[in-house]
Design brief:
Elements (H helix, E strand, L loop, with lengths): L8 E3 L5 E7 L2 E9 L2 E7 L6 E9 L6 E9 L4 E10 L6 E6 L19 E9 L6 E10 L2 H14 L1
Antiparallel strand pairs: 1-4, 2-3, 3-10, 4-9, 5-8, 5-10, 6-7, 6-9
């Protein structure tokens, strides 16, 4: 997701950027976002997919708290899949993830065909106080197994 960050819709558009961030001695490629903010990618999702990231908060105020949210939308309905509150001053990355398997694959329905959908994947942050902070999404990615990744690559080309 870091590599495709330029394609994402960003709110606010200023201040959202990619870079590297260190927490607990581990340096990760990251998406850094002012709080509050959100970034939205429009893409199909792989079968058996899972969103995975590591979270951190950068702020001069160790009491600054940020709520991280991850969800998926089809332009009609937004489904919140995971949320986590992180306070600045933590020394280590916080593991964060969500199951995306409901958004791809074969479903027994005439109307719900997730493989043919372009989903809106949303990373969002909210401040839980008056302090300013930067939300850090370390190594955000959507992962799946090898067979599903190959099928996804072919399907993504067809949907473009």
């Amino acid at each position: 997701m870091v590599r495709e960050f330029e394609r994402a819709e960003k709110h606010p558009s200023l201040g959202c950027r990619t870079g590297v961030h260190s927490a607990g001695g581990l340096i990760r490629p990251s998406i850094l976002m002012p709080v509050p903010s959100r970034a939205i990618w429009s893409l199909p999702l792989p079968r058996g997919g899972r969103f995975r990231s590591f979270l951190a908060v950068s702020s001069s105020d160790n009491g600054a708290a940020v709520q991280f949210r991850f969800g998926v939308s089809d332009l009609r309905i937004y489904e919140a899949l995971a949320q986590q509150t992180i306070t600045a001053g933590r020394s280590a990355w916080v593991d964060f993830g969500a199951d995306l398997s409901a958004y791809a694959g074969t479903k027994f329905s005439l109307f719900y065909r997730p493989d043919s959908m372009i989903w809106r994947v949303v990373l969002a942050t909210d401040a839980l106080g008056a302090s300013s902070a930067t939300a850090v999404w370390g190594s955000p990615e959507i992962v799946t197994d090898l067979a599903a990744a190959k099928e996804y690559a072919a399907r993504r080309q067809r949907l473009r």
